[in-house]
Design goal:
The protein is α/β, with parallel strands linked by helices and about 250 residues long. Helices cover about 15% and strands about 30% of the residues. Strands 6-5-4-3-2-1-14 form a seven-stranded mixed sheet. Strands 7-8-9-10-11-12-13 form a seven-stranded mixed sheet, with helices on one face.
């Protein structure tokens, strides 16, 4: 089972669309209220996850959408669950399109639970535990941002999105937001269903987010410039996600 106490997030991967040298794509370890959740499973995140805990300690997996930079390492996890841990029924919460992309023989190692816009999931103790709330973002195909609430604290994860969606769709009182910031302001208006660092900062400010961490930055984009653009729009300090960084929410 997961870590008791404060809601905590560890960065397992934060590169946008493809991993840079020694990098990894989207993935986060979220722990709180006795639960451990693997949030997105992009390439490289399975290896990084094992630097923090054993694979048998995962209570649930949440996948935001069917682009492989957000789910591909679940293939390796399925192998470990079936043939090494001999574990069955690990719950996976994801849009229906993700299930259609993976190998057909995932069961019984994992148990798929399709989720969509507006759905809520409660994990763990129903007198406490962790609540997940999903919101459809501005990104093709069906992509779900997620709000994680536990112990009176709230984490929001934008997944991938363009400016047609807002963090405010996940409700108020967000203590920390992991928001994608794929490119810089000079790339705005080119399409692709992603945000610039400036747009991420402005979105977090409009949603009155307590703390902003930008992520999903393209490996070719200078993170120092991303941080400066996001901070100017947010009106306060901004962190750029880095591998193995850990945040108390």
């Amino acid at each position: 089972m997961g870590l008791n106490g404060a809601l905590r997030v560890t960065v397992l991967g934060c590169d946008g669309s493809y991993p840079g040298p020694a990098g990894a794509c989207s993935g986060y370890l979220v722990r709180g209220a006795g639960m451990t959740i693997w949030l997105d499973a992009g390439s490289g995140t399975l290896a990084n996850l094992q630097r923090h805990l054993g694979l048998d300690e995962i209570d649930a997996i949440v996948l935001s959408h069917e682009h492989p930079d957000h789910w591909s390492d679940i293939e390796g996890y399925r192998v470990a669950a079936a043939y090494v841990m001999e574990r069955t029924g690990v719950p996976v919460y994801a849009p229906a399109g993700v299930r259609a992309r993976v190998f057909s023989d995932f069961e019984p190692a994992v148990e798929w639970h399709p989720v969509t816009d507006g759905d809520e999931v409660h994990l763990g103790d129903h007198h406490g535990g962790v609540r997940l709330r999903f919101s459809r973002t501005d990104h093709p195909p069906e992509t779900l941002a997620v709000r994680v609430d536990a112990g009176g604290r709230s984490l929001a994860y934008s997944a991938d999105t363009g400016p047609g969606w807002s963090l405010s769709a996940l409700g108020g009182g967000i203590d920390l937001a992991l928001c994608e910031a794929t490119w810089l302001a000079d790339h705005e208006g080119t399409g692709g269903g992603h945000l610039s660092a400036r747009q991420a900062g402005a979105m977090a400010r409009a949603a009155d987010v307590g703390r902003l961490v930008i992520t999903h930055v393209w490996p070719t984009v200078d993170p120092t410039t991303s941080k400066a653009e996001a901070a100017a729009a947010y009106g306060g300090p901004v962190d750029v996600a880095r591998l193995h960084d850990e945040y108390e929410v």
